[in-house]
Structure formats: structure tokens, C-alpha cells
Design goal:
Layout: H1 2-27, E1 33-37, E2 53-61, E3 71-81, E4 86-96, E5 104-109, E6 118-122, E7 131-135, E8 158-166, E9 177-185
Parallel strand pairs: 1-3
Antiparallel strand pairs: 2-9, 3-8, 4-7, 4-9, 5-6, 5-8
Length: 205
Amino acid sequence: MQTKILSALAGAFANTIAAIGIAALLAGPAAATVQTIVPQQSIAPRLLTTQQTHYVRFAIDFNDCPLRAADTACSFRVASLPYNSFLVAISKQIITTFNPTTSATIALGTAAQGTGVMAAFNVFTGQATTAVFDTAFAGAGELVTGSGAAATGMNGGFDIWATYTVGAAGSQGTQGRVIFIIQYIAPNDGDCLPAVAIGATATSC
């Protein structure tokens, strides 16, 4: 009796595995995915007390955000801004063009895969490597760094995320480096909170 039960269970298990395999084949290849890398340490927002333009400068290399075999994009944190920072301008310079199979862009936002700070910027082979100064933000002023938006930064304010996107899944490339400089006016005139807890909101000031 026990042998018959075990045989029946084994048969049912085999049928289930076969059904899963057939379903996978019918579904076709897995859809391309987006990798999100969250570093252990959060970058503290720069908030000076003097009345001057602030900035953050960072470089992005082709291998800073590794793509898995099915990935067409990868997001990671690159900087942090205080809540209600007034975004003034963003400058960028391609030092070495990126060379994945078909295309490469980098976008900046206040969340993974976001483009609210800078729309996708072409960094693919063939682009000029000269600097681009004072280009417009996707969300200038305080549109993406306050005015009632929920803070995303672990240290108060907003983390800035870079998203590296390629045209073919898993195609990392073997070269590429670009430098970004984000200029902003800090909320240091006395009306603004110095920091807003992650997930919290505050009014524009």
C-alpha cells in the first residue's frame, strides 16, 4: 500500500515538473529586467551655511552598475541633495564613450530608474567627448527636490540615482566614463528644515 502511494506521488510530481517546463517554453524567453544596486552607506547631503552656489560632482564608469544577463538597465545611487534644494544647472562631460552592443544612455532621478533630474543622455560610441555646460534639468528649481514630495534620502533630502541603460540585455561594454556636476542653491536661508526624514514631506520654502 505504501509503495503504491509513493509511486502515485512520484508520478504526480513528474507531471507537475513537465507542465512547468511546457509552460516555460510557451511563455518564451524571460523579459529584460532592471538591476537596482543599493550601497550600504548613504551619501550625506552637502549643506553649507554660507550664501553660495552648492554643487555635487561625480563620475560614472561603464562597470559601476553591473548588468546581469537579462538586464537592459541598472540603477545606483551617486549623490544626495538637501530637501528643497533649488536646482540651477547640470554640466556633463563624456571622458570616454561607452561601447555596449547597440546603445547606451544615462539618466538621473530621485529614485531608481527615475529621470526627473536629467532625461536619458546619450553616452554611446560616436558621441562627442567635449563638455556640455549648464544644460537644463528635467525638473528645475524645487520641482523634484521638495514642495511636498516624499524624501528619498537616508540622511534627509533626496538621493540622486543614475540609471545606465543599454540596447541589448546583458551588454555591459568594455569602456566608458562620464562626469556630472549638479549645481544647486541650498535651503539655508532660515525658512527651511535642514533635513526631512526619509518618506516624510515638507512644504516649499
